[in-house]
Specification:
12 helices, about 80% helix, mainly alpha, single chain, about 0% strand
Length: about 300
């Protein structure tokens, strides 16, 4: 299984190099921050002086291309080691098996769990993989790049339609052209086959648009990175759509204003609450409530007489 060995080796080199680069990059930023007072725009991966747009783009690229892949590879290595120990697989086979399930890429190995304990472990690992996928989507939707896109997005229904039918499809086509060209070069395919493979993967088309699929170690590794990018792009789209004013107005129309408290939403409840408080008030309190308006009128007449 030389292919599995090479894929794991690539993931290990990528993880080690990525962690080393992140540490070096963070150290350089820390030197800059230590030379001046800390500012509100300073972050782990960005500096305040870069401005919101640059900070959002830099943070998005670091998270999508380094942080999230490293997290996925480490998780696949650990969880795959547990499953492999139960099933008697080598670490290379178990790593690929778990990696495929975590990012939704096609199977790289033919092995499947055969023992009862292995099946149970596979179910638990798949649940964790689902949580990790949801975390990636939520993180991508919350990053600064998503916020910057939301701020410049037209808040009208026409703007939402343009986002749906023009901006997002064009972006997906450009991303498919770029990544399809790379995987075509790695796999020695025609450019059209690479494009069709990647746009099918990004759009989640179950029936392949081309008969070509990665069969080399660099190709499979690059495909795994592309699937992670696909998840992050999906998270950004979720964030853009969920925060659009048209969508928020629809949610308010359907569910009402959830920020309103119970007293504001139900005036009768406020009257009932006032009645209950009067019932629990003592004789002196009720007397003061009855005397209150008369005392105020008497005080006002006294002030006018003195004046």
């Amino acid at each position: 299984m030389s292919a599995a060995v090479d894929i794991l080796d690539i993931a290990e080199y990528f993880t080690a190099a990525g962690i080393a680069f992140l540490c070096l990059y963070w150290g350089l930023l820390r030197l800059v921050r230590c030379s001046r007072p800390r500012l509100s725009g300073d972050g782990l991966l960005v500096l305040h002086s870069w401005g919101p747009l640059v900070r959002g783009i830099v943070s998005f690229l670091f998270n999508v291309l380094l942080v999230l892949p490293i997290l996925v590879f480490i998780s696949a290595f650990v969880l795959g080691g547990i499953l492999g120990a139960i099933e008697g697989w080598d670490i290379y086979t178990s790593f690929e098996y778990v990696l495929c399930n975590m990012i939704g890429i096609g199977p790289m190995v033919v092995e499947t769990p055969t023992t009862t304990v292995g099946v149970i472990a596979d179910i638990v690992i798949s649940m964790w993989a689902l949580l990790l996928t949801a975390t990636i989507l939520g993180l991508a939707a919350s990053l600064g790049a998503s916020t910057q896109i939301i701020e410049v997005e037209p808040p009208t229904p026409g703007g939402l339609c343009r986002t749906f039918f023009i901006y997002i499809p064009v972006f997906i086509l450009l991303l498919s052209l770029l990544t399809g060209g790379v995987i075509a070069a790695l796999e020695d395919w025609a450019f059209v086959d690479g494009f069709l493979y990647m746009i099918g993967a990004i759009c989640g088309i179950e029936d392949p648009l081309t008969a070509s699929s990665p069969d080399t170690d660099p190709g499979n590794f690059f495909a795994a990175i592309c699937y992670l990018i696909e998840l992050c792009v999906g998270g950004v789209i979720i964030g853009i759509v969920g925060a659009h004013p048209v969508v928020t107005r629809y949610v308010t129309f359907v569910e009402g204003d959830l920020s309103a408290n119970e007293t504001e939403s139900d005036p009768e409840q406020g009257e009932c609450a006032e009645g209950v408080s009067n019932q629990h008030a003592g004789p002196g309190d009720r007397a003061r409530q009855r005397v209150g308006p008369d005392a105020q009128a008497l005080g006002a007449s006294t002030q006018s007489f003195v004046a």
